[in-house]
Amino acid sequence: MIDTKGRDIESYGGKSKGSKGITITFRDLDYTVATTKKDTIKILSGLSGSFVPGRFHALMGPSGSGKTTLMDLLSGRKTAGQIRGEVLFDGRQPAPVVYKKLTSYVEQFDTLVPDLTVHQFLMYTATLKLPASTSEEEREERVYSVMESLNLLSCKDTIIGNELTKGISGGQKKRTNIAMALLTSPRILFLDEPTTGLDSHMANEVVLLCRKLAKQGLTVVATIHSPTAFAFNQFQDLTLLAQGKMIYHGSLGVHAKRMVSYFNKLGFAPKPSDSVVEWMVELISGRLLDLDNTHELKEHLNEEHDGKNHKSINDKRGSTTSLGDNTSTVELVEKKLVPNEEQQSGQTGQIAAAALGYDFAEAYSSSIDAKDTRALLNTLVDKLKTGPDTFDRKERTVSNSVFHGVKTIFRYRTLAHYSNGEFIGPRLGDKILFGLLILSLYFNTGDRKDIQTMQSVAGMLYFVVAILGYGAAAFTPSLSLDKPLFYRERSDGLYTTTTYFVAKFLEEAFVAIFTSLLFSIIVFFSVNLKGSFGVFFFVYFVLAMNGIVLAYFIASAIPTLEAANALLPTFVTINMFFAGFVFVFDKIPTGWQWFTWLNFLRYPWVALMLNQFDNDDFNDVRVFNGQTILEFYDMESGFNSSIWLNILISACFLVFYSICALLALKFIRHDSR
User: Where is the protein found, in the record's own terms (predicted)?
Assistant: First the structure.
């Protein structure tokens, strides 16, 4: 922020060096988003100002005023819309690596890893974000230093928890979120509604912490909606927005006296009994307008209505702002919906600012404060540009390799998942349940040679394939619910999309190896199936992984968990019709033949059927044998006659769905800001 009263350029961060803060300047900043293909809406309009090191800056305004949008633009987190204007860090255009390395962003809602303790979570973040060359001792030292400064040592070994698992308190979660942001010693700290969901005591505690960080030399910018009076007084500078336009930008002064003085010059002042912050929000929200003289208002509006020269209500106070034409307000005065002079009894009358059409943005843009701010802003930028460029623009946006990232995620998050019954239980339980169900229904029937039993075993093999397809729905929550954390960690530069996907894939693959082996042992030997156990296990495992990556693909492409859970079973059901059991391949209508070749359930079922029935034991002189079953299902020639070709094609589906899931995760964003 820029306060032109009695300060020079150096006091605005013109020499921000080392680990100290960075001066952020922005000029003529516009932000527009498309509502339809042809229509757009302007969210921010013509904003100019600066945030400087060593001061605690507040971004305030009514809901929908654009405060979070402005902070997202300044932090480089906007992923949609059209941006015009200039944003500079220390007088220079920030590259993506500058945003990743020198800024930290504390989001409104805490996106932490619920399975880890506070210490484990901070070590996990430090290991991913600090360079791989950093030793374990150095990371531990950094984590303990941050925990100590944020009073987190008392809960360092407590699990973070979530809605279902009791963990640390809301205030401790917020401080953990801030601690995570401070691990890399950022020079700029952005906080979006840091007091959301906290009681007044915890909110005051968080704001005091932010003030302390600013005092240490960081550039600290926070959006805040309804702070307590104590919290509001901790801010040193204020940017006030309404409908995407600047209402006020400058120093607050002690107990917000400078801000109150500015509005007083416009003719608006709080009563002695008013809370300054509540009065300010109500005023710019259009819910409150203070007038010293209702008669003067009525006379002014009548002059406007009669087409006379417009005269400001506040000419006597030196204001440059005039009220717009509004006949309805005269009627409000006449109908005594606002107090008349007698009713006021010396007190300030209050009517709706929106009814008067008072333009606070116009008042600010034409004020001396705005002109002085712009002049000093230009001077500040020119001076900063002549200084040394301390930004390393060639550095990678992600500090570590894919291997290091995967290893770290596995070390902390995957091992925590493996020790969590809520994670392992569903993945293991259904395999045991269905395995025992098949055992009870098909025990020792695999080597029988009567037609009914052989058809029954063929149906069982198809059932094995089908339940893996439907079982894939169990994996959509794994990624859908994890996406907010993934988006935040990727934006923070902890890892790339590839790192995250490989880690998730391996996490599920190791579990799938064990569960597939367990299911295969139960089913293969209890049913006394023929052919190779290794083939049965491998086909089952590949199909299980196919289902998992298909679930990841749909969860990545679809914005909500509910929609993903509805789409996946529908897709699997359609595939079941054309896998060769409901309709024999050569009986499928010609117009649908193409779909059988694109069916990921077809190939594992054919492989299992060939493994079971294409054996010498069944090639006897009987009229009905294994070969007859294969002929009935059109599996005696071509693609359908080779086990390994069908296994290979099934593996190709695994690769294909994995690539689709990775690309969807990388390029389809449901966190558009």
Answer: Membrane
| Alpha carbon distance 643, 635 (integer Å) | 10
Ranges of residues in the chain whose predicted pLDDT is under 70: 1-19, 286-357, 387-397, 616-625, 672-673
Q: Are strands 82-89 and 24-34 parallel, antiparallel or unpaired?
A: antiparallel
And the tokens for 123? 């070590």
Buried b (16+ CB within 10 A) or exposed e, 495-525: bbbebbbbbbbebbeebbeebbeebbebbbe
Give CA–CA dist 579/571, Å, rounded: 13
Q: Which helix (H) or strand (E) holds 250?
A: strand 245-251
Q: How many Å apart are CA 299 and CA 72, to the nearest integer?
A: 45
CA distance 354 to 120: 51
Q: State the first-to-last Cα distance of the chain, in angstroms, to the nearest integer.
A: 24
Question: Could you tell me which residues are beta bridge partners of residue 249?
Answer: 239
By residue count, the chain amounts to: 673
Residue for token pair 């990556």: 549
Cα 168 to Cα 149: distance, rounded to the nearest angstrom: 18
CB 120 within 8 A of CB 412: yes
Q: DSSP 3-state helix, strand, coil percentages of the chain (rounded to 5)? A: 55, 10, 35
Look at the pTM and tell me if it is higher than 0.90: no
**Residue ranges per structural domain of the chain:** 291-352, 402-667
What are 32's strand-pairing partners?
A: 42, 82
Any idea what the Cα angle at residue 72 is, between residues 66 and 77, rounded to 5°? Answer: 150
Residue 650's contacts (CB-CB under 8 Å, 6 or more residues apart) are 539, 542, 543, 546, 600, 603, 604, 607
DSSP state of 395: S
pLDDT score recorded for residue 338: 39
What is the per-residue pLDDT for 582?
85
pLDDT at 116: 96
Contact 96, 396 (CB under 8 A): no
* Residues 410, 510: Cα–Cα separation, whole Å: 11
The CA-based angle 75-80-85, given to 5 degrees, is: 60
pLDDT at 357: 56
Longest dimension (CA), the chain: 115
Q: Long-range pairs for 252-261 at CB < 8 Å and ≥24 separation? A: 252/58, 256/232, 256/280, 258/3, 258/5
The phi and psi torsions of 180 (rounded to 5 degrees) equal: -60, -40
* The two structure tokens encoding residue 149: 């400064």
Helix (H, G, I), strand (E, B) or coil at 638: helix
